[in-house]
Amino acid sequence: MNNKKIERHFGVRQFPQVSHNPHTPSDQSSISHILFAQSNISYSSVLRNYTRNARFNTSSTLKPSLIVTPLHESHVQSTVICAKSIPIQIKIRSGGHDFEGISYISDEPFIVLDLFILRSISVDVQNDVAVVQSVDNVVDARIMDVNGRILDKDSMGEDLLWVIRGGGGGSFGVVLSYTAKLVRVPETVTVFRVERTLEQNATDLVVQWQEVAPESRFTYPIKRMREASDEVMVKSLGSFTKASDSNI
C-alpha cells in the first residue's frame, strides 16, 4: 500500500476527538492535528524532534508513511486497530532514546505512533505512588495490546509487567502509563560537584577512582561527554542521602 492510500485509510478512520485535552486548545483537537503525512508542512520537524541519532536522519533513510501524535488513549487504540486492518507496521516512539533508531526507522513501510504529547504526571502523596505517562520502582502499568485492549497489572499478568519494566522496544504493546513507587527524600541530602583539568592532576584522580571503585559499596556511573572545548576535564557529580556527618 502506497503512502496516499495509507493517508486516506487513516483519514477516514473515526478518531475520537478530545475537546478538553490540557495540552491542546479545543480548536486543535480534530483528527487533522494528530496525523502528519509526508506532504504535511510539519512532518519533517515532528519526525526530527525525537530522532536522537543523526545517522538515521538522512535522505536515504526510509521515512514513516504517517506520524500519529495521539492526544488521548482512544487515539492510540484507533491507530493500533487501523494499522492492523491495513496491515502496516507500527513503530512506537516516546522520548526516542534508543540510539539504534528502533522506534523510528524500518526496512519496510511503517507508521510512527509518537507519544510525546502524553506526558501527564499524577502523584498520590498519601500512598507514595505516581502515575507517569509514556521509571524504576514500577508497580503497575497500562498497556494497549495489538487488539486495542487496555490492560493493567492484573489483566496483563506478572510476566508481561516484568518484561515492560525493562523496556520492550515497542514489541509487546503500547505502554500508556507507568505507576511508580516513590521514595521520600530524607531531610538531609548532600550534593557535590568536583572538576579537575589535566593541569590539576585529573589523571591521578581517575587512577585513584579505578583503585577504590571495585571495593566500594556505592555505585559510581561514568560517562564521556563531548563539549565544544579543547580542554580535557574530569567532572565528579554526586549526591548522598545519609546524615551529613556520615562517612562517604
> What is the CATH H-level superfamily of the largest domain?
Uridine Diphospho-n-acetylenolpyruvylglucosamine Reductase, domain 2
Helix share bin: 10-25%
Unreliable spans: 16-29, 244-248
Briefly, what CATH class of the largest domain?
Answer: Alpha Beta
First and last CA, distance: 61 Å
Indicate how many domains the architecture comprises. 3
Could you please say which CATH topology of the largest domain applies here? Uridine Diphospho-n-acetylenolpyruvylglucosamine Reductase, domain 2
CATH architectural designation of the largest domain: 2-Layer Sandwich
Number of strands: 11
How would you state the average pLDDT, rounded? Answer: 80
* Helix/strand/pairing category: alpha+beta
Order of helices and strands: HEHEHEEEEEEHHEEHE
Number of helices: 6
Radius of gyration: 23 Å
Spatial ordering of strands, largest sheet: 5-6-9-7-8
- Largest sheet, if any? 5 strands, antiparallel
Overall geometry comes to globular
**Strand coverage percent:** 15-25%
